[in-house]
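WARN no homologs supplied; continuing
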Amino acid sequence: MQPHKLVWFRNDLRTGDNHALYHACQNSAEHGIIAVAAITPTQWQMQDEAKCRVQFWLANLEKLKQDLAALNIPLKIIHAETNQELPEKLFKLAQHFNVRSLYFNCEYPEYEQRRDQQVESLFRQQGISCYTYDSDVVLPPGSVLNQQGLAYKVFTPFGKAWRQLYLQQPSTPLPAPAPRAKRQDDVVIKSGSYSDSCNQNYNESYNESYSDTVPVEVGYKNRMGADWSCALWPAGADDAHRLLQQFVHERSHNYKQLRDFPAQPGTSSLSPYLSAGVLSTRQCIAAMQAYSEDPDWFYSQWVTELIWRDFYRHLLVAFPGMNRWQPFKPEIEAKISWQYDEKRFRAWCDGETGFDIVDAGMKQLHETGWMHNRVRMISASFLTKLLRQDWRLGARFFMQHLIDGDFASNLGGWQWSASVGADAAPYFRIFSPMRQTDRFDPKGEYISRWLPQSQDGPLFAQNSVRPAPVIDYSLERNRSIDEYKNSGG
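OK structure emitted
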């Protein structure tokens, strides 16, 4: 059989700006190209993958198969329950098709690095070359360092150094996305497919309780969450790029002014595509360069938010304890007494706290699998600093429900909210649900959208439908500040 190169797709479901695919397709006259992706239902459970995210990933995988077919590259599907089975199943596929080299893009959470190391070890032992690329970030982890040669712990100097390094890249005028892979010669190998039963089996088995990393007495089982909405996030790179260009053309110039108002279409809402790798950060920056009318687009707030994505990935590599749910600032968390109150935690999960902006956000999450970023911060602050529940509980609950669930960004955001993370919010910064509503939803439009029973007024609508507040805000705020003060935050 003709020798082949194997390209392994994970959360990089795109043919454009895909360094692994691009390099595999170079000098491939004597080698055929085969792509592969793995269906791993039990592993998805273990990693708190939301149902809607898996559905979205599978739909984009099908679109990827079509895009690869246009390049004459077949996509094979393998099934493995967990990462433990994955190396052997990948190797059997490689043996069957006489694979001489494996190509894939790096992922940075520790459990994914461990998976990749096991695959590489097995393949190299069998004489198969492995080539890896940093296609999920713009600048690779370890490349943005301070004057002491150490990783940045604060975002602002990281962002400044990131921009300086970006502008110094050899590309002219700015680093561009990797070229699209070239079309291959005709192939006789057919693409694989996954059966509908795979998704059904995943749905039926998903009620997974919390692992030992989170106190079992507050083990709130996943309630399946929302189904993926193709109307909100149509699958495929074509639609992703259409939405990207639409955002840059129509809304990016007002992003900084409108991004914190949840009732306004002020954000890009592209995070699901970034999470599944249908879009890359580099493609988003290239779109800003090509389509933005702002001469200072490179220093815009939206580009800053994209740099935050790189920052959290760099942190995972530089400070591996974060991957194991350890706080970036353990000296602060050591003096915090998490309350582990199941009743309060359930009220937060269900959107029944009696604080309308928090509850509206949780209802949006349950219905759509997405929550506006400002409301995410409000909800996270409420859980950790007012209900005084362990940030890990909220982080896992978000991952189990978010269509854009991203381990690095979600982890970093929750540690920031609890004041135990890198560049975290100061201990005395506690979002007041009332004040946040006054500032960012003054007409109650967002709250009324997700809590229709609150149309008579956005704040604490007291009727037979809305629950009473689960806490006395002033009392809990003072208690929390006193505790954080004692921690030396």
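The two ends are 64 Å apart (CA to CA).
OK
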